[in-house]
Amino acid sequence: MKITLMHNNTFEQMMGIIIVTKNGKVIAVDGGTCGDTPEFKRLIAERGGKIDLWLLTHPHHDHHGVFVELSKNKDSDLKVGKVCYSPAGKDFVSNEPNGLMKDIEQLNAIMANPFYNTVVVNKGDKFEVDNVTVDVLRVVNPAMNPATINDLSVVYRITEKKDDGTEFRFMILGDLYVPGGRELLELYKDNLSELKADAVQMAHHGQNGVERNVYDAIGAKYTFWATPDWLWTNTPGGGAPGTGPWQTLEVRKWMEEMGAEAITVLTQNAEFDTQSIGGK
């Protein structure tokens, strides 16, 4: 499969991943802010104009903004087969000072009368797209309330059956935070092999996400960083590299110590072809 990790088209961090299967089917993960919509649409159009399966991780606008924008402003040229998500509970309360509850309200408003075919996923659900299987490993836990909106993230495992008979596993963590990461390890403590993957999308853009032991359990060779340049270097506006408040440099060190290769989008979209096991 061919994986495109999107570069941010605004100054803000975002996440958009587009996967093309062996026979040209398309799986999208999130998409980015509303400002990333034109580039997202261009990429989908280049790949045939249809999303066969659209996986949403959680209700933050830098992840679902494209979906919301396309749902409000219908594009007749874009076809979508199925959209997967796990909604926050009606009584959910964010424990963050700037919890962005309006992001949840925005997505809920769209899902109340969806333009696309939407599916509420449950742990254990499985979706087949061509030679790729998507397994739902973790969904919203209503008992985690209040919690961060990041811990509403769905964890998806994307597995490709390659031409040579081997498999390539890609773990999607969304913005999963520390409690959600600990829950994930607890859910699979008796079968940690379920978490093993060749590649992982770095939680919360590579900083202030899950703890290192989650990445140890996954053991990925390739790490996908949906991380703008200023966050990659921990550089606040006008400041010197490394002087910001973010954890990125520490997390980068973890992955370097594990011998993982970083797939980044500092200046442009990243393209990764699993058949050749190479990326840029």
Radius of gyration: 17 Å
- Unreliable spans: none
Fraction of residues in helix? 10-25%
- The coarse overall form would be globular
The tally of beta strands, per DSSP, is 17
Determine the structural class based on helices, strands and strand pairing: alpha/beta
Distance between the termini: 15 Å
Tally of DSSP helical segments: 7
Order of helices and strands: EEEHEEHEEHEEEEEHEHEHHEEE
What about the largest sheet? 8 strands, mixed
- Strands ordered across the widest β-sheet: 8-7-5-3-2-1-16-17
The fraction of residues assigned to DSSP E strands is: 15-25%
Mean pLDDT: 96
What does this structure look like?
It contains seven helices and 17 strands. The protein has 280 residues and is of the alpha/beta class. A hairpin with a 4-residue loop joins strand 16 (270-273) and strand 17 (278-279). The longest helix has 12 residues, at 61-72. The radius of gyration is 17 Å and the shape is globular.
Question: Keywords, please?
Answer:
280 residues, eight-stranded mixed β-sheet, seven-stranded mixed β-sheet
Summarize the structure.
This protein is α/β, with parallel strands linked by helices. The chain is built from 7 helices and 17 strands. It starts with a strand and ends with a strand.
Question: What is the strand and helix layout of this fold?
Answer:
Blueprint: E1 2-5, E2 16-20, E3 26-30, H1 37-46, E4 50-51, E5 53-55, H2 61-72, E6 79-80, E7 83-85, H3 101-112, E8 118-120, E9 126-129, E10 132-138, E11 155-161, E12 167-172, H4 178-187, E13 199-201, H5 212-218, E14 222-224, H6 229-232, H7 248-257, E15 261-263, E16 270-273, E17 278-279
Parallel strand pairs: 3-5, 4-6, 5-7, 7-8, 12-13, 13-14, 14-15
Antiparallel strand pairs: 1-2, 1-16, 2-3, 9-10, 10-11, 11-12, 16-17
